[in-house]
Amino acid sequence: MNDDQLIEQTLDGNRDAFGELVTKYQVRLYNTMIQVVGSAEDAYDVAQEAFLQAYLRLNTFRQSSKFYTWLYRIAFNVAMGMRRSHRIRGWNGDMKQDLTENLEDHSKRPEEYLISKENIKFVQDSLNELDEDFRTVVVLRELEEFSYEEIAEIMEVPIGTVRSRLHRARSMLKERFARRIK
Questions:
Q1: 72, exposed or middle or buried, with CB in 10 Å at 0-12, 13-18, 19+?
Q2: pTM reported for the whole predicted model
Q3: Which of 42, 69, 135, 172 to pair with 128, CA 20 to 30 A apart?
């Protein structure tokens, strides 16, 4: 069943339909929120609150955008609200899960695996050094593969701002990577 059908069923009173939406998107939202807020515990809290708010406001969802884009926007707002109220410890690099955990190849020889882990840590640290707006746009574009339009909608900024922030973030990361090679 597609998202629109699940939403329609939920609005008709079928809570199990919303449960299917949660099952479909919970891991993706949680993993993305780890990158945004920097801790597994905070990401869990943000995801839970986002799903609750999405359920309560589902009747306001306009199907002109994808459900996940709308859900992510809610989660992003929850995360920013929690950060403003200091209920999020902030981006601290002490993540329970590696940024590219799903890309690791454990069949490598031990020395290759250690180099890979070192590179992953370097990428995480590099993202950690970016300001929140730059880090968020990189996560949305490079990890979540959102379009520029979707990122603009999520962050509530013009597309030009998205392009500018992404360009600047990539430049900062490129500089950091170049320093590492020297």
A1: buried
A2: 0.68
A3: 69
Residue 150 CA to residue 45 CA, distance in Å, equals 24
Q: How far apart are CA 36 and CA 101, in angstroms?
A: 16
Question: Residue 141 is encoded by which pair of tokens?
Answer: 């574009």
Query: How far apart (Å, rounded) are the C-alpha atoms in residues 63 and 67?
Result: 7
Under a CB-based contact definition with an 8 Å cutoff, are residues 86 and 46 in contact?
Answer: no
Residue that has been written with the tokens 């020297």 in this structure: 182
Q: DSSP character for 59?
A: G
How far is residue 33's CA from residue 29's CA, in Å, rounded to a whole number?
6
d(CA 129, CA 92): 10
Domains of the chain from N-terminus onward = 1-95 (1.10.1740.10)
Q: Are 30 and 43 in contact (CB under 8 A)?
A: yes
Q: What is the full per-residue pLDDT of the chain (182 aa) written as tens digits?
A: 899 999 999 999 998 999 999 999 999 999 888 888 878 899 999 999 999 999 999 999 988 788 999 999 999 889 888 877 765 554 443 333 444 444 444 455 655 555 566 767 777 778 878 888 898 899 889 888 889 999 998 888 999 999 999 999 999 988 888 887 76
Phi, then psi, of 87 in degrees rounded to 5 = -90, -5
